[in-house]
Design a protein that fits this description.
The protein is an all-alpha fold and 855 residues long. It contains 32 helices and four strands. The protein has a two-stranded antiparallel sheet. Helix 3 packs antiparallel against helix 4, helix 26 crosses helix 29 and helix 26 packs antiparallel against helix 30. The longest helix is centred in the C-terminal third of the chain and has 36 residues. About 1% of the residues have low confidence.
Length: 855
């Protein structure tokens, strides 16, 4: 009993501690920088300790579940609040560990930033807690809530530089792609509920999910995972997200956030392991991974921006994880999970190292660096180790995990035979080819940054501060340790998770490395051979420096008139980054030209512009179509009115040029939600369903009031200070009106029904009712309307509050009274989102009373 209490306390503390730290840091925005930075590092360290404790206890005691003491109202009914098993433990361990290292690194890295420190550290801690919450969520609904909260943190951190237009564009792009595809999780949940799945608690799904429901949910989960884990073709937000501070790109976009999709697909593989769906899901994951690792490895080679180069490699390396999960054997899944852990180590190291280079050199372009190894020996040594690990060069950790994936693919190919076996063999070849391309781009990166001629402006560059070096050294050491002794991790963290997924024995690892049915890897012996070879090579190199006597009448080399010595100086003969990839770029000219023109973004941008430019035309077509459905009896009059309000309101919002019109359109959309709930009640098949519809509508009507009032007050504050609410008249208000800025974006997210705000729970009721009615057409309309409204909200926010401060905004000050009231209202929205039970209990009681009166 005592041990169970310990592990439950550890799980709860792992989630709560970073949230508490985030809140405290945010309210200390006027404190000295070091106080905020070290306070955040302290909470991150506590979270790391507690999450490590939780991981150890889970592995010792087995799965642990914590019942929800709230979120029990009808229509929500969450059974398990938190659930920890071997798979959760693996992901929680890396989120806690790397969260601490990233924030420790930020202590020195963010010191040179002029402002925004409290916001940065609060968001980093909030992100750490959200990631741990996602991995420990005991229910699919809670998993989705944390999934969206992670996306919101990413949005805030990518857009950290509020005055830079590229930051605003990148943050909006990341949010919209991940949220739009993330709707797939909700649609998958609805598919499960519509097919009779009563409980969404993870253990119940594993044991009793209906086959037809799983068949509908798995493709939707895959789409959501592809966007979050940057798989082709929804990977394009990640390279742009490198405008964020270096610790953000390391933590969010290498170690943690982009692994959320890997976690969801690992859970999905666990759900279908003994069903006919296993083979098609395996093939789908493997195909996505193989294509992504090939294309993105090639794309990385073409980059001159060091962070974009690493971002493409992030997508490629996660492709290896999808491939490993798709292999479906114990060896392949072990390789995928081992590579997940290893990638967090070496890619986090490389992103932090890139941050050190940018910190010291003041540029992200490899063509503007060079010769920095002498100035920054610690950074250079650590990045060389990380780069070789990324490329899968033995004896580093990246090779150990990739080898398992190669061998797993061959094992599956031999077991399947025929066409499918040939496909897996081709995927193995592509994985090897991807590693070769990766090595080439790593050599380009290392050579361009650390070797050759050093530009004159970088002569005075020095090594970065110690708090930035420590994370690099720790991660570099882990790259070596886990490569030389991979069983340290395989036996403790990986094998239990593999057993959980395949529900069979995990691979047996022999010797000091590991052995599989295909081959073996004797890590320590290989490391010794490589070390001895390097020592011999170094001895030969040193021997070459001994002076050589040259006869005075010896013929000197022809130098074309050059008389300066030495005749062949390596410093003067430095090769830039261009020759490393120009021939390759010529070989893949179509891909290179496509990327230069904008790549897949052309389709996304074109679609967004089409919706915005032709919104009224689309609205007219939608109106005529819905009117036709009404005439044919496919919609009741009330459902028709609600659907028209939601769809037309969202399309009008997409064209808004004024904050006032945005608010009006948003309120129309949400009132349309209420009307649709009432319309669904009209066609309800029983009293329970009728009451459910009515309660959802009542709850949503109450929920939208504080959100709409908060946005109204924010718009009034902007109008009173800036004299206008038009998007083309004002910009850059975030630095002048910070409280209004926070209240506006929070109220906008609430009106767009984004978790964890209150409106999400009441809109979810509409989704459930429509799915149970079998009206998937209306479910899609509701989803499209909310995604479009979110895009409109973010567009308005970016235009008015981000970017450089315009001349007219220089003297603007905060409207403190209006902003404070708006902030209180959005805090109420957040509180009702976290604890919706009182409102929903009231709504159900009132709905039952009204039902008795009307029926």
């Amino acid at each position: 009993m005592g041990e169970t209490m310990d592990v439950q306390l550890a799980l709860i503390s792992s989630v709560i501690l970073p949230f508490v730290g985030s809140f405290i840091t945010s309210i200390l925005h006027k404190a000295p920088y070091k106080a905020k930075a070290y306070l955040a590092a302290f909470f991150a360290f506590l979270t790391f300790l507690v999450s490590s404790w939780a991981t150890i206890l889970i592995l010792q005691l087995g799965p642990v579940a914590i019942e929800a003491g709230f979120l029990k109202a009808r229509g929500i009914d969450i059974g398990l609040l938190l659930y920890g098993d071997a798979l959760s433990a693996l992901f929680v361990a890396i989120a806690g560990f790397f969260g601490f290292l990233a924030i420790l690194y930020s202590v020195a890295d963010m010191a040179h930033e002029p402002g925004g420190h409290a916001r940065f550290f609060a968001l980093m801690l909030l992100f750490q807690g959200s990631m741990i919450g996602l991995f420990l969520a005991g229910n699919l609904l809670l998993l989705f809530v944390f999934w969206e909260l992670v996306g919101l943190c990413s949005y805030g951190l990518i857009g950290f530089y509020l005055s830079k237009a590229e930051s605003a564009r990148a943050s909006m792009k990341a949010l919209m792609i991940t949220h739009a595809c993330g709707v797939g999780i909700i649609l998958g949940i609805l598919a499960l509920l519509a097919q009779g799945q009563v409980s969404l608690d993870l253990p119940n799904l594993t044991s009793a999910a209906p086959l037809l429901a799983l068949a509908a949910a798995m493709p939707l989960f895959l789409v959501a995972s592809m966007a979050k884990s940057v798989q082709l073709p929804v990977h394009t937000w990640l390279p742009d997200a490198t405008v964020a501070p270096s610790a953000v790109t390391a933590f969010l976009h290498a170690a943690a956030m982009v692994k959320a999709g890997v976690y969801l697909m690992a859970r999905s593989a666990q759900l279908v392991v003994f069903t006919p769906l296993k083979a098609p899901l395996d093939l789908a994951m493997a195909t996505v991974g193989a294509i992504t690792l090939t294309v993105c490895s090639a794309g990385a080679w073409l980059q001159d921006d060091i962070k974009r180069l690493l971002a493409y490699h992030t997508a490629a390396q996660i492709g290896y994880m999808f491939l490993g999960l798709g292999i479906g054997t114990a060896v392949g899944i072990a390789g995928a999970l081992f590579h997940f852990f290893n990638h967090a180590i070496f890619k986090g190291l490389l992103f932090l190292g890139a941050g050190c280079l940018i910190y010291a050199a003041g540029t992200k372009k490899l063509s503007e660096m060079g010769g920095l190894a002498r100035n920054m020996p610690v950074t250079a040594a650590c990045m060389i180790i990380g780069g070789l690990a990324l490329a899968g060069v033995p004896p580093f950790n990246g090779f150990a995990s990739k080898l398992l994936i190669y061998e797993g693919a061959l094992q599956r190919a031999l077991a399947e035979g025929g066409l499918i076996g040939g496909v897996y063999a081709v995927y193995c070849a592509l994985a090897l080819f991807g590693s070769a391309i990766t090595l080439a781009s790593v050599l380009k990166m290392l050579h361009s940054a650390f070797f050759g001629l050093r530009p004159s402006r970088l002569e005075g560059v020095r090594e970065v501060p110690l708090t930035m070096q420590i994370p690099l050294i720790i991660l570099a050491a882990l790259c070596i340790i886990l490569g030389v002794a991979p069983r340290l991790l395989l036996d403790t963290l990986i094998n239990p998770a593999v057993t959980l997924i395949v529900r069979a024995g995990a691979p047996s690892y022999l010797l000091l490395g590991f052995a599989t049915p295909i081959g073996f890897y004797e890590a320590l012996i290989l490391a010794l051979i490589i070390s001895i070879s390097l020592l011999i090579g170094y001895a030969i190199y040193k021997a070459s420096f001994k002076p050589v006597t040259v006869a005075t009448d010896a013929t000197m080399p022809f130098t074309g008139g050059e008389v300066e010595e030495p005749y062949l100086s390596l410093e003067r003969a430095r090769i830039g980054p261009g020759p490393f990839y120009l021939n390759f770029a010529s070989a893949i000219a179509p891909l290179y030209a496509f990327m230069k023109r904008g790549g897949i973004d052309l389709a996304y941008i074109g679609l967004a512009r089409l919706v915005e430019a032709r919104a009224l035309t689309i609205a007219g077509i939608a109106f005529l179509s819905l009117t036709g459905a009404l005439a044919m009896g496919l919609l009741t009059p009330v459902l028709y009115v609600g659907t028209v309000m939601m769809l037309i309101g969202a399309l009008v919002a997409a064209r808004h040029r004024d904050l006032k019109s945005l608010l009006i359109a948003a309120v129309i959309v949400q009132l349309g939600d209420v009307v649709m709930e009432l319309g669904a009640a009209e066609v309800a098949k029983g009293v329970e369903e009728y009451v459910h519809c009515l309660a959802g509508g009542l709850a949503h009507l109450v929920n939208i009031v504080p959100a709409a009032l908060a946005m109204l007050l924010c718009i009034a504050a902007v109008a009173s200070r800036a004299g206008s609410t038009r998007l083309d008249a004002i910009r850059g208000l975030a630095g002048r009106m910070p409280i209004t800025t926070l209240a506006f974006i929070a109220s906008g997210l609430a009106l767009a029904c984004i978790p964890p705000f209150n409106t999400w729970w009441s809109e979810y009721q509409l989704y459930v009712v429509l799915a149970e009615m079998g009206r998937w057409d209306l479910v899609v309309i509701v989803a499209f309307s909310t995604v479009t409204l979110l895009a409109a909200v973010v567009k308005g926010f970016n235009r008015v509050f981000t970017g450089e401060v315009g001349p007219s905004a220089e003297k603007i000050t905060e409207a403190t009274g209006l902003a404070a009231v708006a902030l209180i209202l959005v805090a109420l929205c957040a509180l009702l989102g976290m604890i919706p039970d009182p409102l929903f209990n009231w709504a159900w009681m009132l709905a039952e009373s009204l039902a008795r009166w009307w029926m």
